[in-house]
Amino acid sequence: MDRDLRDKVVLITGGAEGLGLTIADVYLQRGAKAVGLLDINANNGTAAANTLNKKYGQNKAAFFKCDVTSDLEDVFKRVIDTYKYVDVLVNNAGILNDFAVKKTIDINVTALIEWSLKFWEHMRKDKGGKGGTIINLASIYGYRVDQYLPVYQASKFAVMGFTKSLGHSYNYERSGVRVYAICPGFTETSLVKEIHVSNEEKFQKDAVNFIKRQLWQKPDAVGRAALETFLKADSGTAWLIEGNKPLLQV
Question: N or C: which terminus of the chain has fewer CB atoms within 10 Å of its end residue's CB?
Answer without folding.
Answer: N
